[in-house]
TrEMBL record:
This is TetR/AcrR family transcriptional regulator. PANTHER family: HTH-TYPE TRANSCRIPTIONAL REGULATOR BETI (PTHR30055:SF234), HTH-TYPE TRANSCRIPTIONAL REGULATOR RUTR (PTHR30055). SUPFAM superfamilies: Homeodomain-like, Tetracyclin repressor-like, C-terminal domain. It comes from the Bacteria. The keyword GTP-binding does not apply. It comes from Streptomyces tagetis. The lineage of its organism: Bacteria, Bacillati, Actinomycetota, Actinomycetes, Kitasatosporales.
Length: 223
């Protein structure tokens, strides 16, 4: 008597509704982290996302996992904005501009200090996302420099520091009211990156390696 061989089951893929729930949780968490900080209760995140607490914990067993996912998703979206601009226009400086403004819209300056604090800023997922962004920005800056559009005495670190500083509201100010000035001031900074340079910058260009350290790529505000 022969028995049929057991059928091999394919690994199940996440259902579409499960993926949508995860995306809604990440979007809600990003908004609330910006508004209230990383200590916002999970039940508040669940309420804003329109899901149950169990759904949040099923996707993100602890706060570190949720913060990490939020920061990685923000970095990936800003990178996609720059890549799309480069593909659509072929203009490296325009791609650089789109990256800077997209990073401000994502409130990357508010989220970045979270991974420079108690969370594991050297987690492989964070390192990979950061390397993707830095590599893309370095490529775009080099192409803009070769095209004669970008001044030669700046590097990726200069850009990252300026974006973090200029898109972070000064202490004691109303964040919502200050938001309307962010893109104006970022554009002033971007105009200062254009070649030919109008002045000689003090010091040397800031590289990605210069940013590595206890504060990582998100230095504290000096305002």
């Amino acid at each position: 008597m022969s028995t049929a061989a057991p059928a091999h089951r394919k690994a199940s893929r996440p259902r579409a509704d499960a993926l949508r729930n995860r995306e809604r949780i990440v979007a809600a968490a990003r908004e609330m982290f910006v508004e209230y900080g990383a200590d916002v209760p999970f039940d508040e995140v669940a309420r804003r996302a329109g899901v149950g607490n169990a759904t949040v914990y099923r996707n993100f067993p602890d706060r570190d996992a949720l913060v990490r996912e939020v920061v990685c998703s923000v970095m990936d979206r800003t990178a996609r904005a720059a890549r799309s601009a480069l593909a659509e226009t072929g203009d490296a400086f325009e791609a650089l501009e789109r990256f800077v403004h997209a990073a401000a819209d994502e409130r990357i300056s508010a989220l970045c200090p979270m991974i420079a604090g108690t969370f594991d800023q050297h987690h492989p997922d964070l390192e990979a996302a950061r390397e993707r962004v830095e590599g893309l920005v370095a490529e775009i800056m080099e192409r803009a420099r070769e095209a004669g559009r970008l001044r030669p005495d700046v590097d990726v670190g200069d850009l990252m520091i300026a974006v973090a500083q200029l898109s972070r509201p000064p202490a004691g100010t109303d964040c919502v009211r200050v938001d309307r000035f962010v893109h104006r001031h970022l554009q002033l900074f971007l105009d200062g990156l254009r070649a030919p340079a109008r002045s000689v910058l003090p010091g040397t260009a800031t590289t990605v390696a210069d940013l590595r350290g206890p504060a990582d790529s998100c230095p504290p505000s000096r305002r």
